[in-house]
Amino acid sequence: MDSMTYKTAEEKSDEQIITDSQKAASNYNYDTVSGSIYSGQGDVTFSQTSSLAPMVKQPDALQTAPQPSQIIIVGTAHVSEKSVNEVKDTIEREKPDIVAVELCKSRYDSLKGEVKDSEIPIKDILSGGKIYYFLVHLLLAYVQKKIGDEMGVQPGAEMITAIDAAEASGAKIALVDRDIQLTLQRFWSKMGFFEKLNIVVTLVASALGIGSSKNIDIDNITNQDMVTMLTDELRAASPNAAAVLIDERDAYIAGNLVKIAKGGNKKIVTVLGAGHKTGVEKYLKDPKSIPPMSSLTELPQKRFSFMKVLGIGIVALAIATFALLIMSGTPIELLLLAFGWWFIINGILSSIGAALAKGHPYSIITAFLVAWLTSLNPMMAAGWFAGLMEAKQRKPTTEDLKEVVKLESFKELQQNNFFRVIMVAAFANIGSTIGTFLGVYVMVQVTGHNPIDLISAGLTAIGL
What we know:
TraB_bac; TraB/PrgY/GumN_fam; seven-stranded mixed beta sheet; alpha/beta; 2 domains; TraB_PrgY-like; membrane; transmembrane
């Protein structure tokens, strides 16, 4: 019977928690760890630290029965020098076969500096609502960097230390966290409008240093009482965010640890944030409670959001105004005049937005030319076109993206090609939205109609 035992780095007692990991593995379709690099959702990704390093130390030749795999959990604060030292000391003391870290492949590559400089697929970012969770990701990274600067510790330093210590000892590295992009997509899609608003306002305030702050000792964040307090605050502010960022990842990490432990005879040091420690331990005590990996990696169905309702409402207002003007018997000359004002007002305000973001002249012209049409189509936005034109001229790269969180002033941000594309898209959209409301008002005025009479005439025309 394959089994495993886990303990935290601080525990010194001989008590061990034994579970039937083979049975748990079969329940969740775990694969035997063979030393090859795993890929695909739900699998553990191993970073090959050395072509000569064995996947697992071979048991003694006289040993006939496999011993339980041992999982040692080190809970850390991501910007704490104390955590960095604890990680290093634990790996050097325990000499594990495998070091599991709270990273996915993309975050591992980023920490290792292995991300090649290439152009960013701006079209994918600007479409499908991805721009919003992408901006939240940048805000989260910026806030964490700001805390790290104050503490004199690079964000993720404890993970880098774990990786370096594993490489130095010949241990394998297991990347056991869910892909960051998948987590952010689930995070954003599962929250309601007011939850999103609350999260964004909180992050912006933190980034700007606005609002009340608590005197929290970073070195004490790994204390369980402190962890409970902080996670409870997140759950109160945004239950859905806590479920995706904490609970789901607890299950995902625990599932991958059970997979690694299968077969026995392995010592695994696991380095993860203190906020995940309790949840992961709970699942390791009862692997049967780990939900299927497929349920943690699928994207939720798109919902009919408040922002979509608002966008469609704005478009409906503009189209209804044109329809009412026509049904009220407005002369063609006045209709053409009204349309001219609509075109000019939408175009000017959208292009002003692009100009305020210091967009390229071609981007400003693009915003001017498309704003009148995008305001009448809920599937399009002036900012998308202006942003794509800006990206074509500036060609932002992954290096620009990495530099965003390092910049200290808004002036520096405006000089960053990636941030400028995002700003051009956002400001052009804001200008176009304002232009829609103002354009509707001006159209009614230049045609000489009273809004109430106009609505009454429209209702009469359709027999109401």
